[in-house]
Amino acid sequence: MTIEEKIEQFAPVAEHLPGVVVIHKIEGFAPLYMSSMGLDLIEMNLEELKEVGEDYNKRFLNEAFMDDYLVFLKKMIKEKGDDHTYNFFHQVQLKEGEEYVWYNSTIKVFYKDDNGFPTHSVTIAFPLGDLEHIPQKAEKMLDESFFLKRNRQKFHSLSSRGKEVLRLVALGKTSAEIAEELHLSTETVNSHRKIVKQKLGITSTYQFTKYARSFDLI
To answer: Which tens digit of pLDDT belongs to each residue from 169-208?
Structure first.
């Protein structure tokens, strides 16, 4: 069965599902199908949507987040196989110039080629609407994702001792307390603190805590 035949077979079912259904190529994320609920929201027909192609990510989604997520998805498919279902929050811009709207989506492999390699995914997306607390939490998650992306290289430039000092400072310990716990002199601890601050560009205790939380040290 070709991908076109499978989509044709699946489309009538998708039209009755309580969310926006989209079928993408996994490589490049170009859409091949979207249920009428979604097409009505973006005010396009299916042929117009297909013409968007790999620009779909830039046109409708928060590209900075989705780029990382697609890398993660491919990695998970490779490690866990293609029968898993993955859930995630993301932002959609329905019309150019409008604010992003939060969606909760579920995605899994939809189609594999003749060699059994996953080539297409199917997503069903639900708008979060008036559930205000969920978008707020999702916003925090997105901010943390961007923070990790921007600062990953700086964090990994720290030595293991520097990361340990970062963790303990974030927990509110003084240099003297850290020195006692790590069996170091206070001068050595202060030296590590100075190096950590220089490498990460830290100017406050709050930033020590943000790094430690973002990189799962506390």
So the answer is: 988 899 999 999 999 999 999 999 999 999 998 888 888 8
Q: Which helix (H) or strand (E) holds 89?
A: strand 86-92
Q: Measure the CA–CA gap between 34 and 37, rounded to whole angstroms.
A: 8
pLDDT digits (tens, 9 = 90+) for 94-135: 887 788 888 888 888 999 988 888 899 999 998 886 555 555
d(CA 132, CA 138): 10
Rg of the chain, C-alpha, whole Å: 23
Whole-angstrom distance, CA of residue 160 vs CA of residue 139: 31
Considering the entire predicted model, what is its pTM?
Answer: 0.60
Return the closest-CA partner of residue 64 out of 146, 147, 154. Answer: 146
- The residue type of 186 is T
CA distance 58 to 89: 17
Beta bridge partners of 107: 86, 123
Q: Could you give the CA distance from residue 83 to residue 108 in angstroms, rounded to a whole number?
A: 7
| Strands 118-127, 20-25: pairing kind | antiparallel
Q: Name residue, tokens 């990510």.
A: 57
Q: What is the DSSP letter of 53?
A: G
Q: For tokens 């989506």, name the residue.
A: 105
Bridge partner residues of 90 (DSSP): 103
Q: What DSSP line would sit under 190-204, residue for residue?
A: HHHHHHHHHHHT--S
